[in-house]
Amino acid sequence: MLTFLVKHSLVGMFICALLGFLFPSASTFVFPALPVVLFCLMLLTLLGMPIRRLTKRLVNQSVWLYGLVHSVLFMCIFAFVCWLVGASNELTLAILGVGATGSLFATPAIVRALGFDNLEAMAMTIVTTLMLPIVLYFPIQWLHVAQGQLDFVAYGLRLLVFIVGPILISILLHRFLPSEWLQRTLVKISPYTILLVFAFPFGLVGAYRQLWQEDELTALLYLLIAALLVAVFFLVTLMLYRKQGYDVALTAAITAGNRNVLLTYSIAGALLGPAFLPLAGAMQLPTYLLPVITKRIYLSHIKYKLVDKCK
C-alpha cells in the first residue's frame, strides 16, 4: 500500500486536497496538528540531504538570486496589480503574504518524483524559507488589517522553532551520529514522509471550505485568485529560467509554484489578516495539481525531443 502511495504521490496530494474540501470536519480536526507535521517534515527532509553538497549549493549566488525572484519580484508584481484593481487591504495582504512565502519543504520530494535535481530544489527551498521572515515583515507593517503590532519576541521564537530548529537539529545529528546508521534509518522511514505531505492539502483546505459554506461567490473568486497566483509563479519563473535548460527551468518553476503557506501562517498568524487562511486553503487545489500538470508537460517535451531526433 505504501509503495502504491509513493508511486502515485503526485495525484495523491491533489486527491487529499479534494478530500479535505469534501470532509471539512476532518480537515479542521487535522489542521491544529499541521505545525508539528511541518516541523517533522522539514527535519526529515533536511536529514536526507547531503549536508556538504547542500552547503555548496547554498553559497551559490544563483540560488539567492532565485530567492529574490521567488519573493521580492512577485510581491512587487502583485502589489502593483492589487493597487491597479483596487483590491482591499485584507486581500492585498493575503496575496503579498503568499508572495513572500517560501517553497514547500515537500518540494524536493515532488521534484525528485518528476525526475529533476532535488538538491537544487532543496537549496532553493531553504533560501526562500530563510528570506521569508525578512520579506514578510514589510507587508505586515505596511498594511494594518489586524489589531496589534508585530510581536518580535513571539515572531523570533516561531522562527527559531520552525526554521532554525530543523536546520540546527539536522546539522547536529549529521555531526554526532554515525553517517551509515543515520542513512539506514532514513531509508527505512523516508517512505512514510509522503504521509506527512498528504496531511498539508487535507488539513489546510478546511478554511476554504468554511468560506465556501458562507459565501460561494467569494469562495470562487478566491479559488480563481489562487489558480492565477500559482500560474503566475510557475509561468513567469519558467520564462525567466528557460535559457538555462528545460530541467532547470521546470525545477525553478515548480519550486516557485509550491508555497509553504502553513509556515507563513505559523510565523505571522492573525497579523496576516482574515483573508490569508481562506486563500491559503484555496491554493491547495492548484498547488497540488501543478506537479501533475508539470509531469505531463515534461513527458510531452521528452516525447517531442525523441520524435525530433528520429526525424
UniProtKB/TrEMBL annotation:
InterPro entries: Na+/solute_symporter_sf. This is Bile acid:sodium symporter. It comes from the Bacteria. The chain crosses the membrane at residues 5-23, 29-51, 63-86, 92-114, 121-140, 152-177, 189-208, 220-241, 262-281. The keyword Transmembrane helix applies. Keywords: Membrane, Transmembrane, Transmembrane helix. It comes from Marinomonas piezotolerans. Gene3D superfamilies: 1.20.1530.20.
